[in-house]
């Protein structure tokens, strides 16, 4: 709550959960590991890639979210990926994930496309989008990972006639975006994209 001169002018209440989540990326005999660890325990991630469940978003009712997460539990899932080609989901989605114990791999909404990050106005707008959604979602116990994009790095290999896009794709997902994420969420793991290489696109 916020009070001015003894009078409350604003109040907000949120459910939170306390846990520790990290992505374990360590060199091994096959290259590098990639798995989640929750409260110090390795997790075998079982789940699915989630796209918007209706072309008309207002059709997705709270009851549909509840049923969907019940189905996830029944299928023994413990993680769901919000795909970068869809939308940042409704608050109800993340509330259900919290309550049902389903971790969320959250893509930023960039997928399969070259974006003009070199355009100052576009980049400024993107930064506002990032800040808004991180502030909205960062308190959820289910939030396990911020992922920069879906499949852009692999597609960038084919943009031979667009070197400016290649340069700025690398710059944005490997430098600008992680810095923006850490401004507003210092705890949740971040990866530049899925799949993702070393950040040296040639």
Characterise this structure.
This protein is α/β, with parallel strands linked by helices and 202 residues long. It is 34% helix and 21% strand. It contains 5 helices and 12 strands. The strands form 4 sheets. The chain has a 5-stranded parallel beta sheet, with helices on one face. The chain has a 3-stranded antiparallel beta sheet with strand order 3-6-7, with no helix packed on it. The protein is globular, with a radius of gyration of 18 Å.
Fraction in helix: 25-40%
User: How many strand segments?
Assistant: 12
What is the arithmetic mean of pLDDT? 93
Strand content: 15-25%
The tally of helices reads 5
* SSE-based structural type: alpha/beta
Q: What is the CA-atom radius of gyration, in angstroms? A: 18 Å
Principal-axes geometry comes out as globular
How far is it from the N-terminal to the C-terminal residue, by CA?
51 Å
Q: Which regions are unreliable across 5 or more consecutive residues at pLDDT < 50?
A: none
């Amino acid at each position: 709550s916020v009070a001015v001169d003894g009078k409350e002018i604003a109040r907000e209440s949120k459910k939170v959960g306390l846990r520790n989540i990290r992505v374990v990326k360590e060199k091994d005999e096959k290259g590098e590991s990639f798995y989640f660890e929750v409260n110090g325990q390795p997790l075998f991630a079982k789940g699915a890639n989630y796209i918007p469940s209706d072309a008309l978003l207002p059709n997705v009712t709270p009851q549909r979210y509840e049923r969907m997460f019940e189905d996830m539990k029944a299928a023994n899932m413990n993680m769901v990926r919000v795909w970068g080609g869809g939308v940042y989901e409704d608050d109800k989605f993340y509330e259900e994930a919290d309550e049902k114990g389903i971790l969320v791999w959250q893509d930023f909404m960039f997928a399969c496309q070259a974006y003009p990050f070199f355009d100052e106005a576009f980049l400024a707008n993107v930064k506002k989008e990032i800040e808004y959604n991180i502030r909205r979602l960062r308190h959820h116990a289910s939030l396990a990972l911020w992922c920069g994009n879906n499949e852009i790095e692999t597609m960038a290999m084919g943009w031979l006639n667009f070197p400016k896009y290649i340069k700025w794709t690398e710059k944005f997902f490997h430098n600008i975006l992680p810095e923006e994420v850490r401004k507003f969420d210092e705890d949740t793991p971040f990866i530049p994209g899925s799949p993702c290489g070393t950040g040296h696109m040639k």
